[in-house]
Write a structure and sequence with these properties.
By secondary structure, this protein is mostly beta strands. Helix content is 0%, strand content 44%. 13% of the residues are buried.
Amino acid sequence: QNTTAIVTSESQDVISIEFATNLRSGVDNNQEQIQTESDQKVTFEILKGYSRMFEVPPNIDTNGILTFKTWPYSFGNTRLCVVLRDDGGTLFGGIDATEPKCWDLIVNPRYLGDYFSFAQSSLEILENSETQVLDRFFIKSPMGLYKDILHNFSAAGDSNFFETEPFVSEFSRLTFKCYPYVFGTTSISVSLSFYNSSDGQMHSHHQDLALNVIAVNSKPSFELNESRIHIEIIENECVTEFCCF
């Protein structure tokens, strides 16, 4: 194809693109097939490309189909250069390859509906628990994967329930603390907002985490009334002393 760029979207599958057509092993100055070379076999060679981007490196088969697979959650731009080579050799000044042709392969990020999720859908803690710091509480989070995305996690909850409002650190660590002697069910709403520089758009996604604070029965207690700690009763006196403890 006479193209300067191929644009596709991030995918976890092998991507196939019809890259080249009308493959011929030998042509004259008018780009016509030379019949004596029509039986030669041709192969594509990819000369350069950003290999760390690909789980399955780019390959072009003898039908001109380009296939490749990027690593999960990987996207970006890379420049590829290819030549078409035949098996006729280069004896006596023969030419067995085309001049390199280069183009940009642009893999755009794809917004996933389930952009992040919780490692568990609900959480239980005991009443009067200390500050909760939950590591690795998110899965399928873009942390460390989407280098070209500016993102921000935020969390919110019932202010009557939380002494320390829920918040999420840059390492996907969820932190919160409930008020003493508060129990019952509530939820923590976690949101992810991000700007994707590839499409110039703001995206957002949120999910609610169910939180159940289990009541813990505390031991009973009482104190003696200091004014009644020492009680004297006269022997044989019919006197009843009512004490208030």
